Amino acid sequence: MNVAMESLHHELSVLSKAIVYKNISTAAENIGLSQPQISRIVARLESELNVSLLDRSCRRNSTWLPTALKLSDLYKRRIRSLSSEISQIITEQEPKHLHVATLEGLVPQASEFCHQIFAKTSLEGIELNVYDLSLLEENFLRG
Q1: Which candidate, 58, 51, 25, 19, places its Cα nearest to that of 39?
Q2: What is the pTM of this model?
Q3: Is 130:102 a contact under the CB 8 Å cutoff?
Q4: At 100, which helix (H) or strand (E)?
Q5: Closest CA relative to residue 140, chosen from 97, 110, 100
């Protein structure tokens, strides 16, 4: 992501948080940024996008214009969509099945291990194979 896009993302993120409040002063009290910081961010957005986001006719009590509301809504929808698509990609990369091998004397521990893994993941299945030592070594060496 280039510097301009990173900045735009940050600015739109701030706008989407600030827009919930009636004006910049109220937003500043609630979102952890100062009023001058939010004002500068809004001014950069207005300049970058060549739009007006605030009705500044009342100097001490500027209010959001419909364009700001639309821009914020668009950003929120797109960021939710992007987050959902990223989550889907991550989920698709997770294994669906797991193969576990154990020695005969360790079946209770291996079984508990498999149960814990199955309960805490999105695995669809776990195969637990019990081997004697020579067969386990042979399978391990073959991969």
Answers
A1: 25
A2: 0.61
A3: yes
A4: strand 97-103
A5: 100
Separation between Cα atoms, residue 38 and residue 68, nearest integer Å: 13
Instruction: Please give the Cα distance from 126 to 100 (Å, whole number).
Output: 7
* 53 burial level (CB within 10 Å; 0-12, 13-18, 19+): buried
Alpha helices in the chain (DSSP H): 3-18, 24-31, 35-49, 66-93, 107-120, 133-142
Residue 60: phi and psi, rounded to 5, are -90, -5
pLDDT string in tens for the chain (143-residue length): 455 666 788 899 999 999 999 888 889 999 999 999 999 999 999 999 999 999 888 767 778 999 999 999 999 999 999 999 998 898 888 888 998 988 888 999 999 999 999 899 888 999 999 988 888 788 888 87
Euclidean distance between CA atoms 63 and 45, whole angstroms:
16
Question: Which tokens sit at 13?
Answer: 């993120």
66 φ/ψ angles, rounded to the nearest 5 degrees: -55, -35
87: left (phi over 0), alpha (psi -120 to 50) or beta: alpha
